[in-house]
Amino acid sequence: MSDALTYAxxxxxxxxxxxxxxxxxxxxxxxxxxxxxTRHAAEWLADQLRRAGLAVEILQTARHPVVLGEWREAGSxxxxxxxxxxxxxxxxxxxxxxxxxxxxxEIREGKVFARGxxxxxxxxxxxxxxxxxxxxxxxxxxxxxxxxxxxxxxIGSPSLVPFVEQHRDRLRADVxxxxxxxxxxxxLPSLLFSLRGLAYFELRVSTAKTDLHSGAYxxxxxxxxxxxARVLAxxxxxxxxxxxxxxxxxxxxxxxxxxxxxxxxxxxxEKFRDEVGAAALTGEPGWSVLERxxxxxxxxxxxxxxxxxxxxxxxxxPAKAMTKLSxxxxxxxxxxxxxxxxxxxxxxxxxxxxDTELIQLHGGLPWKAELGGRFLEAAxxxxxxxxxxxxxxxxxxxxxxxxxxxxxxxxxxxLLVGFALPGANMHAPDEWLPLANFERGIVALVxxxxxLGTP
Length: 455
Ligand code: BES
Ligand code: ZN
Description:
This protein is α+β, with helices and mostly antiparallel strands. The protein has 13 helices and 19 strands. The strands form six sheets. It has a six-stranded mixed β-sheet, sandwiched between helices. A four-stranded antiparallel β-sheet has the order 12-14-10-15, covered by helices on one side. Bound molecules: ligand BES and zinc ion.
């Protein structure tokens, strides 16, 4: 055991250099101009897993490949751990907002800045290095390990559900371990009790055949931007609740135990407000900030486009407008039901003479952990040993849609243990991961694999 940790400590500067190499590959899954880079990242990762001692295959999907690594020498009586992560990243734009270029990792004040450092290449790579350390010099683990890394998480994992269905037997595991989230705070590790689900739409609004002179036509022809603004304004009540009829019908109120657990966390709402730089916070009355983020559903405009936005003034009545809009969901809401309710709402609020087209881009169910049991205990012990304190249980506002599908298809519980920190700038400029967490996380994961095999 201590051999693995000694190895990890001895090799730490090489681990860091390799992490940088991984982060330099711009594996942006959303953009086809990066398809070759994304493929390169898969091959690079496969090579790393092979060197760590796993048998590795790259399996093609309709878009970006899945990397599958297997180490099964613990034997058929030992538990099997499925490690899931993603090697794709979000686009890095706007580039000019980055202090150092997104694909040229740099350390400042102990933080590794690069796209993917936190979400999720840095965290996935911690598993790779933990496995390398644990299996170095002929050492064995008490668990079998299967690593599944996908390249489509940031585009909604379109190939992964069919992939998991198809390879159900090969992926069969006793527990699924995922590091793609954050700790609760610096020096305070956490395990997740929930993730929100997601229903993401593009809404296109159109009025006329073509753009028109705003003087010659304005006043008589409907304006799509104004119509869209009306639609968007109709989605929330003045008090912050969502105004779509039936939206809350499927929400199962969380138990008092969970709310108590949330209240017990060391969280300062004022400090949070200050850190995001907002003058005031918003949301549903009757719920704390953490509850609004974790256990309440939301509706957010993610993007908005209409008319002339270039330099100077152009007098134009646009013909169309569009928005990208998402709902974060909580148990037992489903993306399909939310779509139906949203469609009915749109039919009610769209002004006359305005056409709408609704396209669903992503969907994912919310996840609620089965708490208790020896896997959670094993993770607590491992995190305690690496960080010097037992983890807290926390919820998460973001989504990892495949988690629910793993539990359903493989019938194994998921264990979500993240090592990024709040404010890591996932999906934003200046994404970062503390170097200390990269290193301590590797220790925690080595210990976790050990503990998961201890009856
Ligand atoms: N790593 C995130 C999930 C996450 C976000 C965990 C914030 C902890 C804090 C994941 O890669 C992600 O961004 N998921 C998307 C889902 C989508 C693209 C289907 C999300 O939540 O927007
Ligand atoms: Zn992620």
